[in-house]
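Hi R.,

As promised on Friday, here is the backbone we talked about, encoded as structure tokens. Could you run it through your design pipeline when you get a chance and send me back a sequence?
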């Protein structure tokens, strides 16, 4: 069944309706423990959301047919009425994302294999390589509804990752992990990933016990910002969580530091960048924290209606899920730090998922860290999201895109290390 026909049938039955159709293809080559293997992944599916009299239903499957329509309508019948449920109409033009599709990733096998080969050859003999991975492919997304939204995009993606450590005598260093991703092959430099990895393996070639850390500042690398700060802040600035009282931040709260954080879904070259959100509305840059003040919570259609707030077009989903709220890229704009002093550089943390996201409190294990005297053994870093933001002294080095953040290394005071 064509999307237009499905929407026409549902409209004739008194339903607002929305279809998301996704086709994706990717190739993944990996190396681990001396063995190399590959995987080809292909997927196609439809997600169907309906709203009838304030009741919302959802169903998904590999085909758009009468059975899918019936399942979505039955789900709506079983749901409670909620006057804030609605399928959105158009809210401005959707501007295509520049250079979002790399034709060389149409058939990515050779390119992906080539990236993996670079990692293997460049790392040979330099350190103990524990894993390597390269991937590439494309995805097509269309979102159309009965209210006039009809948008589509075809995006490519590629990336490379590697892990390694130092092994010598009885000493085994911590495993360091590095990766890079992009919308195009030219945005991925496997040799640069290996160089970063080699440098950090060398930094942790010898490690001493983490003593005398109390009161010292912390320098979070962009990778550590992505690991620690992104999930905590992404939860805190969701309008759903702010409205429900499940965020450690309050709108209008002054965090005491001149930091500005924006959600930018159109970061050039970003593998997560997008022209429209999960409801087909144009992707927009939203300043979340402005000059240290929490100004705007990220929202989708439902939570904007329920909370009486602007819709920031921050819906995030797959064809198998209902629209949720998420940032795309959190971009940090901070003043340069004049001096990092005796800061402890934190590069990798573990256990962020155990944090209390509603209060922002965290206690994580730092697995990769060093200071001016060399590598440090594992220690615990603890504090809260508000402490971290209030303790931001500035940035060190250039801003980098890493994971879901664009940021320099962040110099932070007031966190506990033990």
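Update: got your reply. Pasting your designed sequence below so it's all in one thread:
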């Amino acid at each position: 069944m064509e999307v237009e026909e499905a929407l026409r049938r549902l409209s004739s039955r008194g339903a607002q309706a929305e279809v998301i159709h996704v086709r994706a293809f990717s190739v993944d080559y990996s190396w681990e423990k001396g063995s190399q293997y590959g995987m080809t992944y292909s997927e196609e599916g439809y997600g169907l959301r309906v709203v009838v009299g304030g009741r919302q239903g959802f169903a998904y499957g590999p085909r758009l047919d009468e059975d899918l329509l019936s399942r979505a309508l039955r789900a709506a019948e079983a749901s409670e009425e909620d006057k804030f449920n609605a399928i959105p109409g158009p809210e401005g033009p959707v501007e295509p994302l520049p250079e979002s599709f790399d034709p060389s990733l149409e058939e990515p096998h050779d390119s992906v294999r080539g990236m993996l080969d670079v990692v293997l050859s460049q790392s040979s003999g330099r350190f103990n390589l524990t894993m390597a991975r390269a991937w590439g492919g494309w995805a097509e997304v269309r979102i159309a509804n009965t209210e006039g939204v009809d948008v589509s995009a075809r995006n490519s993606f590629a990336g490379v990752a590697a892990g390694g450590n130092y092994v010598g005598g009885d000493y085994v260093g911590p495993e360091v992990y590095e990766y890079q991703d992009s919308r195009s092959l030219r945005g991925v430099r496997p040799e640069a990933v290996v160089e970063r990895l080699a440098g950090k393996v060398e930094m942790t070639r010898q490690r001493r016990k983490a003593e005398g850390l109390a009161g010292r500042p912390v320098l979070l690398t962009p990778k550590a910002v992505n690991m620690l700060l992104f999930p905590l802040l992404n939860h805190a600035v969701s309008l759903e969580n702010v409205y429900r009282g499940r965020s450690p931040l309050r709108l209008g709260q002054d965090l005491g530091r001149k930091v500005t954080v924006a959600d930018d879904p159109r970061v050039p070259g970003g593998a997560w960048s997008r022209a429209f959100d999960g409801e087909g509305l144009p992707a927009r840059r939203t300043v979340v924290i402005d000059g240290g003040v929490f100004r705007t919570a990220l929202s989708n259609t439902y939570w904007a209606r329920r909370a009486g707030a602007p819709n920031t077009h921050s819906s995030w989903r797959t064809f198998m899920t209902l629209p949720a709220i998420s940032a795309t890229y959190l971009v940090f704009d901070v003043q340069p730090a004049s001096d990092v002093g005796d800061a402890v550089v934190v590069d990798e943390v573990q256990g962020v998922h155990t944090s209390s996201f509603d209060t922002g409190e965290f206690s994580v294990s730092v697995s990769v860290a060093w200071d001016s005297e060399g590598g440090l053994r594992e220690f615990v870093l603890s504090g809260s999201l508000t402490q971290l933001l209030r303790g931001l002294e500035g940035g060190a080095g250039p801003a980098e895109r890493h994971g879901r953040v664009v940021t320099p290394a962040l110099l932070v005071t007031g966190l506990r290390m033990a």
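One thing I noticed while checking it: The CA atoms of residues 337 and 394 lie 4 Å apart.

Thanks again,
M.
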